[in-house]
Design goal:
This protein has 266 residues and is of the alpha/beta class. It has nine helices and seven strands.
């Protein structure tokens, strides 16, 4: 029997990319899965492709915080409880600081940070009452370092680390765990939907993401991290510049900063 057999997992951003891959991975492990995103048609497709798994479709808009209490109640009622909440929904950004309007910064923080806080506080009483629960937070390497044209995205991801590190320290007496996942370049449509300086969608996939690590293998690494109760884990290619950047950021921050500067065209 799998570690995840009959566990109830609620996944946001489940209509594509890492979220979709996680749905299939958890279903294969015998979990019951509540899937959420805005696009109901894509959620229906994912549910159908889950090959008869126990999947409950729960549409959710991450900026409609006033719906979170009711949505949380529905997620709990779907299978009687929620054991694991996977925070995965979000958007990215590609624009220079000098050209980016405040509305873009606010949008990134609302979707990529405040929605995580709001949904966490909505389900936290359920975890505390049951004396068990697991928050899985899909952050990014950008949550540890910053590179050009990612300012709003990196800021939101850095904020996640601060919030969930604090939460982990507060809730351990209730047997509640927090695992932060830092993906490298993963082959998804994240850059297609990234916001530009004007708030429009980028509509393009760069080489780094186009040649990135497969989402299904990423999902397997995430399940291993959750199973092992890890605090923070990088997922992606074993030999990659993202993994090297994390190592350098910890032990050689100045050389890394100088290397990042060289990405800027003169």
């Amino acid at each position: 029997m799998s570690f995840f057999t009959n566990k109830v997992v609620w996944i946001t951003g489940a209509s594509s990319g890492i979220g979709e891959a996680l749905v299939y991975a958890f279903v294969r492990e015998g979990a019951k899965v509540v899937i959420s995103a805005r696009r109901t048609d894509e959620l229906a497709r994912v549910s159908q492709q889950a090959n008869g798994g126990n999947v409950y479709v729960l549409p959710l808009d991450l900026v409609q915080f006033d719906t979170f209490a009711a949505k949380t109640d529905e997620a709990i009622r779907a299978f009687g409880q929620v054991d694991i909440l996977v925070h995965n929904g979000g958007i990215s950004q590609r624009s220079w600081v000098a050209e980016t309007g405040m509305d873009v910064h606010r949008r990134l923080m609302e979707v990529d940070y405040f929605s995580y806080v709001a949904l966490t506080t909505a389900i936290l009483p359920h975890f505390q009452q049951r004396k068990t629960g697991h928050f899985v937070v899909i952050s990014s390497v950008m949550g540890k370092i910053g590179t050009p044209m990612r300012s709003a995205y990196a800021a939101a991801k850095h904020a996640l680390h601060g919030f969930f590190d604090c939460l982990r320290a507060e809730v351990w007496p209730d047997n509640i765990q927090v695992t932060i996942i830092c993906p490298g370049y993963i082959r998804t449509n994240v850059s297609m939907n990234a916001l530009t300086a004007t708030g429009e969608k980028l509509g393009a996939v760069g080489d780094d993401i186009g040649n990135g690590y497969p989402a299904n293998k990423t999902a397997d690494q995430i399940l291993a991290a959750v199973r092992g109760g890890k605090y923070e884990v990088f997922v992606g290619k074993k030999l990659s510049k993202e993994r090297l950047s994390l190592f350098m950021n910890r032990f050689f921050p100045t050389p890394l900063a100088n290397a990042v500067k060289k990405q800027i065209p003169k």
